[in-house]
Amino acid sequence: MGPETRNDLKISIRVRSHLRYSDLFHTVLGQVARLVPLPAERLDWIALSLREAVNNAVLHGNKNDFSKWVEVEMEVSGTTFTIRVWDEGPGFSPGVLLDPRRPENLFKPNGRGIFLIRQFTDRADFARSADGRFGICMSVDLDSNEDKEAGE
């Protein structure tokens, strides 16, 4: 991909907080992958990360409140593809996340989403927007050929 096409994509989709929209974001990511050189061997893992982030926004951030919104932004800047998922929840301290690999956490029904996101993206950070929304920012290096799954 030439430099003239490295900074030409920014998509933002805002929907009511409901799990039925997870497939919409997955479909959009599939179309974006036709335009952006997302590493093909990582596309399924990026899609899983997006789905986990959206599900967390709906279930944990917005507490299944359909009156609240979830927004997903996808952007290419230089050699980085970034996905941001915003909700209207109070947020949390990442320090409270438990390691799902520890024996005492293996059979807990929750707690793997953020772990998976961190495994399958190059960077995952939490943020608070200027308007008070809470979100996760996931980045993928477009020039990296590293297979994140193989590294684990």
Short structural summary:
The chain has 152 residues and is of the alpha+beta class. The chain has helices spanning 22-35, 43-61, 113-120, and strands at 10-16, 69-77, 80-87, 123-128, 134-141.
3D architecture notes:
- By secondary structure, the chain is an alpha+beta fold.
- The chain contains three helices and five strands.
- The chain has helices at 22-35, 43-61, 113-120, and strands at 10-16, 69-77, 80-87, 123-128, 134-141.
- Strands 1-2-3-5-4 form a five-stranded antiparallel β-sheet, with helices on one face.
- β2 (69-77) and β3 (80-87) form a beta hairpin.
- The chain is globular, with a radius of gyration of 15 Å.
- The model has no long low-confidence stretch (mean pLDDT 88).
Features:
alpha+beta, 152 residues, five-stranded antiparallel β-sheet, 3 helices
Mean pLDDT: 88
Number of helices: 3
> In order across it, which strands form the biggest sheet?
1-2-3-5-4
The biggest sheet amounts to: 5 strands, antiparallel
Identify low-pLDDT runs: none
In whole angstroms, the N-to-C terminal distance is: 29 Å
Rounded radius of gyration (Å): 15 Å
Helix share of residues?
25-40%
Helix/strand order, N-terminal first: EHHEEHEE
β-sheet strand percentage:
25-35%
Assign an overall shape.
globular
Determine the structural class based on helices, strands and strand pairing. alpha+beta
| DSSP E strands, number | 5
How does the SSE layout of this entry go?
Elements lengths: L9 E7 L5 H14 L7 H19 L7 E9 L2 E8 L25 H8 L2 E6 L5 E8 L11
Antiparallel strand pairs: 1-2, 2-3, 3-5, 4-5
Helix pairs in contact: 1-2, 2-3
